[in-house]
């Protein structure tokens, strides 16, 4: 079987979200199925480290698809041509987009519908494109994989997608996220927070992540507890970060907030693993990988009660209303004051985090890919 894969998010030094998902799943899938050929389709020059084995053939199809006009061109003109050239049996696209101009069966991965619920957090042109096309993508796909029960229900509630078409393919955190040594904790605090304890947020600096309410909550913590606690924001500056940085510049506790920018994975493990607690108050997530990363590092978690996080973390986290900064502050202060609670959350997090792995995710995605081909074959058989 020839399996074509959309790998445009495999970017050197810039792996996030979709990129991590593609990297971790297809590194395993290609190794587990050497009998099949995989066509990795990039939209720009690629790094050889993304060619995982002899059964992987990289193909560059420019120009880089980074806005709606080029999305349309890339998926509906370039992709069909490549699928024909290499006689692909199936096309796998893990970024929520598929081709509307090919007859090749497609396995589509939709992580969430954030564009639908929080349109102001995305570029208007992107939201418009997705609103026009998502129903078409879901209808066109032979199977649809998504990363949580929350996202599955959300898709079914908003689109006419058959329940039997949607598979849950839980995401995961890398094995590299594990408890760090006391020596590393001390060194990390000395490097980033002048040796002080800190709460950490990991992820992009983006409106959807609710960082303004996090700053407000941190202010309440500082005022009420009179603590030298710091707040570390570990992630790159993403879309619409300017207003956040502008607000931060006049923030009363600016000297107690550290923005690391994009950091290498090994350093991120140390930053998360050395934290007093993880604060992840995002408005909406299909899965919420940083929650698992913290649990694997034996760090207690505070996260949002909405979307998927409660489904994923179960009883191993404290939950907040992301719209209410006082609620966020209350949970931060509770964790700050209650060492017993902190230890209980860490122990529960160790148990919950073991339920997820990239091996499991890869197996589930592979089954969804096979279902895509199987559905098409069964339709042909009935003709």
CATH top level class name of the largest domain: Alpha Beta
- Based on Cα principal axes, name the global outline: globular
Number of helices: 14
CATH architecture descriptor name of the largest domain: 3-Layer(aba) Sandwich
Please tell me how large the radius of gyration is.
Answer: 22 Å
Q: How do the SSEs run, as a string of H and E?
A: EHEEHEEHHEHEHEHEHEHEHEHEHHH
Largest sheet: 7 strands, parallel
Show unreliable segments: 376-383
- Head-to-tail CA distance between termini: 22 Å
Count of separate structural domains: 2
- Proportion of residues in extended strands: 5-15%
Please provide the count of β strands: 13
Strand order across the largest sheet? 3-2-1-4-5-6-7
CATH topology call of the largest domain: Rossmann fold
Name the average pLDDT.
93
Please describe what this structure looks like.
The chain starts with a strand and ends with a helix. It folds into two domains: 2-172 and 358-378, Rossmann fold (3-Layer(aba) Sandwich); 182-353, 3-Layer(aba) Sandwich (Rossmann fold), CATH 3.40.50. With 383 residues, it is of the alpha/beta class. The protein has helices at 18-32, 68-85, 114-117, 124-140, 149-158, 182-192, 211-225, 241-249, 265-273, 289-296, 309-313, 325-337, 339-353, 358-382, and strands at residues 2-6, 37-42, 56-60, 90-93, 106-109, 143-146, 166-168, 198-202, 230-234, 257-259, 277-280, 301-304, 318-320. Helix 11 (309-313) links the parallel strand 12 (301-304) and strand 13 (318-320). It has 14 helices and 13 strands. Helix 1 packs across helix 14 and helix 7 crosses helix 12 (325-337).
């Amino acid at each position: 079987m020839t399996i074509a894969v959309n790998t445009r998010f495999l970017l050197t030094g810039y792996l996030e979200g979709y990129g991590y998902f593609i990297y971790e799943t297809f590194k395993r899938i290609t190794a587990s199925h050497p009998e099949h050929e995989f066509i990795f389709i990039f939209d720009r020059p690629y790094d050889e480290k993304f060619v995982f084995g002899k059964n992987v053939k990289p193909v560059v199809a420019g120009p880089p698809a980074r806005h709606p006009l080029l999305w349309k061109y890339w998926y509906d003109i370039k992709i069909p041509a490549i699928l024909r050239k290499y006689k692909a049996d199936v096309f796998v696209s893990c970024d929520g987009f598929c081709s509307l101009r090919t007859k090749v069966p497609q396995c589509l991965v939709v992580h969430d519908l954030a564009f639908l619920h929080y349109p102001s957090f995305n570029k208007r042109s992107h939201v418009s494109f997705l609103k026009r096309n998502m129903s078409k993508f879901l209808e066109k796909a032979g199977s649809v994989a998504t990363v949580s029960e929350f996202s599955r229900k959300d898709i079914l509630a908003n689109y006419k997608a058959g329940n039997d078409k949607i598979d849950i393919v839980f995401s995961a955190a890398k094995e590299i996220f594990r408890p760090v040594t006391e020596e590393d904790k001390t060194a990390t605090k000395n490097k980033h927070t002048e040796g002080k304890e800190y709460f950490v947020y990991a992820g992009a600096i983006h409106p959807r992540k609710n960082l303004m309410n996090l700053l407000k909550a941190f202010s309440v913590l500082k005022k009420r507890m009179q603590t030298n606690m710091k707040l570390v924001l570990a992630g790159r500056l993403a879309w619409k970060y300017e207003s956040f940085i502008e607000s931060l510049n006049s923030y009363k506790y600016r000297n107690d907030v550290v923005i690391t920018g994009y950091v290498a994975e090994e350093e991120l493990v140390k930053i998360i693993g050395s934290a007093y607690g993880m604060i992840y108050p995002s408005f909406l997530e299909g899965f919420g990988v940083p929650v698992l990363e913290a649990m694997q590092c034996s760090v207690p978690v505070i996260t949002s009660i909405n979307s998927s996080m409660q489904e994923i973390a179960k009883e191993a986290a404290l939950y907040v209303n992301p719209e209410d900064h006082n609620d966020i502050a209350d949970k931060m202060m509770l964790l700050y004051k209650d060492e017993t609670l902190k230890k209980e959350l860490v122990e529960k997090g160790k148990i919950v985090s073991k339920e997820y792995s990239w091996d499991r995710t890869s197996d589930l995605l592979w089954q969804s890919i096979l279902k895509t081909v199987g559905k098409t074959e069964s339709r042909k058989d009935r003709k």
